[in-house]
Structure to design on (176 residues):
C-alpha cells in the first residue's frame, strides 16, 4: 500500500469473492436446495429480500457458468443508492433492485403462484446459519434430515471454492 492508493473509495470491488460466513452459506444454500441449478446455462430466477451490502447478489451476478435472473427487494431506497455508489451495482435485464416492502412484494407475488418454504435450524450450524431461510422443492430429503443437509452444504461449499471446514470456520484453501 502506498499513499497513492490509500483512499479506499477508489478501490475496485472484487465481486468474485465472498468473505462473510453467512453470505457463503446463503450462496451455497441456493444451489444445494436445488432452487437454482449449479453450472447451468438455463436461466434461473433468484429473489433476495434485503440488499445489505450487496455481497450475495454481486457474487451471483458475476458467477461464471450461471445465468441468473436476480431480483433484490429492499424497503429502503438509500440501500439502492449505496449499492450503486459504493458496491458497483448496475441494473441490467438480469439484475435489479426493487424498492418495496418485502411483505407487500410477497402478497403481490402470491397472486401469481405459491412458494414452498422450509426453515432449517440444525443444531450444529453457526448462529448466523440458524437464522437462514431455505427454500426447497416439495418432499426434498434435505429439508427433513439435518445431517444430510450439512453434508450437502459442505459439498456445495467446496464446489463453489469456499471450503467450509473445522466446525463451521471458513478457510481459504486449495485442499479438501
Amino acid at each position: 500500500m502506498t499513499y497513492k492508493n490509500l483512499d479506499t473509495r477508489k478501490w475496485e470491488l472484487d465481486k468474485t469473492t465472498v468473505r462473510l460466513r453467512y453470505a457463503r452459506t446463503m450462496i451455497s444454500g441456493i444451489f444445494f436446495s436445488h432452487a437454482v441449478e449449479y453450472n447451468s446455462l438455463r436461466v434461473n430466477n433468484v429473489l433476495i429480500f434485503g440488499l445489505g451490502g450487496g455481497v450475495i447478489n454481486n457474487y451471483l451476478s458475476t458467477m461464471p457458468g450461471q445465468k441468473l435472473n436476480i431480483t433484490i427487494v429492499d424497503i429502503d431506497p438509500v440501500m439502492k443508492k449505496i449499492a450503486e455508489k459504493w458496491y458497483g451495482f448496475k441494473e441490467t435485464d438480469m439484475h435489479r433492485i426493487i424498492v418495496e416492502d418485502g411483505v407487500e412484494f410477497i402478497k403481490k407475488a402470491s397472486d401469481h403462484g405459491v412458494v414452498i418454504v422450509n426453515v432449517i435450524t440444525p443444531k450444529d450450524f453457526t448462529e448466523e446459519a440458524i437464522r437462514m431461510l431455505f427454500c426447497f422443492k416439495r418432499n426434498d430429503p434435505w429439508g427433513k434430515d439435518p445431517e444430510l443437509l450439512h453434508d450437502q452444504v459442505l459439498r456445495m461449499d467446496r464446489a463453489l471454492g469456499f471450503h467450509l471446514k473445522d466446525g463451521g470456520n471458513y478457510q481459504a484453501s486449495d485442499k479438501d
